[in-house]
Amino acid sequence: MSGWADERGGEGDGRIYVGNLPTDVREKDLEDLFYKYGRIREIELKNRHGLVPFAFVRFEDPRDAEDAIYGRNGYDYGQCRLRVEFPRTYGGRGGWPRGGRNGPPTRRSDFRVLVSGMFLSN
């Protein structure tokens, strides 16, 4: 697993947050969106009347959760652009997220950097 997930706190359990869902979303819809990333252990759909629905999806393998975030964050689903990220963990004094992150999560772009030819020396 990458260090990115470990630094965010609590993501080692394979759980992701899925926000900005359409009001008529069903658990089956979420299963269809995420099954290709790995075996899903649990889907918790929070669909309270009058509020934008959100969900938590838990994968058996935490690496699958990372892949799902990479593949579905910013994905256009109907008229909605999905927000997929690790759940925020609040704790300690003041209720701030662990790790000192006080702002919104960073957005990923469509651009990637490929690094090759690196050598480790002793």
Automatic annotation (TrEMBL):
Stored CDD domains: RRM1_SRSF9
Keywords: RNA-binding
GO molecular-function terms, A-Z: RNA binding
InterPro entries (alphabetical): Nucleotide-bd_a/b_plait_sf (IPR012677), RBD_domain_sf (IPR035979), RRM_dom (IPR000504), RRT5_SRSF_SR (IPR050374), SRSF9_RRM1 (IPR034503)
Domain RRM: 14-89
Highest taxon above the source species: Eukaryota
PANTHER family tied to this protein: RNA RECOGNITION MOTIF RRM DOMAIN CONTAINING PROTEIN (PTHR23003), RRM DOMAIN-CONTAINING PROTEIN (PTHR23003:SF65)
Protein name per UniProt: Serine and arginine rich splicing factor 9
